[in-house]
Amino acid sequence: MEYQGSCHCGGIAFTVEGEIGQVVDCNCSMCRRRGGLLWFVPDSAFALRTPRERLATYLFNRRHIQHHFCPTCGIAPFGEGQAPDGSIMIAVNVRCLPEVELDALQVAPFDGARL
Fold this sequence. Notes:
This protein has 1 helix and 10 strands. With 115 residues, the protein is mainly β.
């Protein structure tokens, strides 16, 4: 399935393909405050539809994940990082996919606070 996603104002737009089997609810200091639900996909399943120059990026802790957000509305629709095998993974905030029924998702807690 293909999903259309964006930040609140539409300044960052993207498409992502795949089946959402499970999403992650992380409790690290960033995710806890942001409240996102993350779906991890390979970068080949993700297409940014707006120029990269529109992205603001935040790095923290070990600085391994690029947490992208919109400088206009502040919404963080996705992040990018490297998987253990070296491939690039995209962490899509499924709350930024309007057609997804959030109550139907299988949510797995992740203890990022203790990493």
